[in-house]
Specification:
It comes from Geoglobus acetivorans. By secondary structure, the chain is α/β, with parallel strands linked by helices. The chain folds into three domains: 87 residues, Winged helix-like DNA-binding domain superfamily/Winged helix DNA-binding domain (Arc Repressor Mutant, subunit A, Orthogonal Bundle); 50 residues, no CATH class; 98 residues, Tetrapyrrole methylase, N-terminal domain (Cobalt-precorrin-4 Transmethylase, domain 1, 3-Layer(aba) Sandwich), CATH 3.40.1010. The protein is 42% helix and 22% strand. It has nine helices and eleven strands. The strands form three sheets. It has a five-stranded mixed β-barrel with strand order 3-5-4-6-7. The protein has a four-stranded parallel β-sheet with strand order 9-10-8-11, sandwiched between helices. α3 crosses α4. The N and C termini lie far apart (63 Å). The mean pLDDT is 92.
């Protein structure tokens, strides 16, 4: 497992993976994505070129060679086998879930991911066995006996709010936001930008404000839907991160329609 034992090899894999996912990215983009200095990235790129894993397209832009693809494929396969073995060992022990109904120890149950949480209910053809009693809404440990489908990334709906120079929350369509939230009651609501926070409060919702972008990303990765109320001045940063994380999103214009 050389790629996990050497920081240099790990960075090499991440750079090649990013070039495969996004051929239009340059050194500066990758430095920002990996949180390392442009100088350090430049040194890594020199090594990759010398090892014939990438070729220069034009200044600052590169393409992965066939040799690079083979290197990436080999190491990703090793990682896949490692993680498959680790995950099977983790889930062969027990899973903590929220009971959708009263559960008794020894019940055959079905457990699944929904809205960012693992839930469990009784089922004759389930994929686990309850190891304790739980009333509806309580937590319970489940011993897996069958396959478990990992969560799909949750949808993100971006509700764009005008900057204060263009009216801010006064120019936002609060009624439209209320309807959006009512129609997606189980979605996490976050706000980015003061205008967005005020708009949420006008809609009768106290959103997650501090650390909102990180919450948005983490919630989606755990399968929870997210409504991100975002001031237009900071929307580009969120959109860029969502694209980098492979999370799909829709943008809703939250401005009041002019008569």
């Amino acid at each position: 497992m050389k790629v996990l034992l050497s920081r240099r090899e790990t960075v090499k894999l991440l750079i090649l993976a990013e070039l495969m996912r996004n051929p239009e990215c340059n050194q500066r983009d990758i430095a920002r994505k990996l949180s390392i200095t442009p100088q350090a990235v430049s040194e890594h790129f020199k090594e990759l070129v010398s090892e014939e894993l990438i070729n220069v397209v034009h200044k600052g832009y590169y393409v992965v060679t066939e040799k690079g693809k083979e290197w990436l494929n080999r190491n990703l396969f090793d990682l896949h086998m490692f993680t498959e073995d680790l995950i099977s060992k983790i889930y062969s022990s027990s899973v903590l879930a929220l009971a959708r109904e009263d559960i008794e120890e020894g019940d055959t149950v079905e457990y699944w991911f929904e809205d960012g949480f693992v839930y469990v209910r009784k089922s004759e053809t389930g994929n686990g066995v309850a190891t304790g009693d739980a009333e509806e809404g309580e937590e319970v440990l489940v011993k897996p006996t069958g396959a478990f489908t990992p969560p799909q990334k949750g949808e993100v709906v971006i509700f764009k709010v005008p900057m204060v120079e263009r009216g801010g929350s006064k120019a936002a369509d609060v009624e439209q936001l209320e309807k959006l939230i009512m129609g997606k009651r189980r979605h996490v609501v976050v706000a980015m930008g003061l205008e967005a926070l005020v708009t949420c409060r006008k809609a009768g919702v106290e959103p997650i404000f501090f650390g909102a972008k990180n919450v948005c990303i983490e919630a989606s990765h755990h399968g929870s839907g997210v409504i991100a109320v975002v001031t237009e001045s900071v929307m580009e940063d969120l959109v860029r991160t969502l694209i980098e994380e492979g999370i799909s999103f829709d943008i809703v214009d939250g401005s009041k329609q002019k008569d």
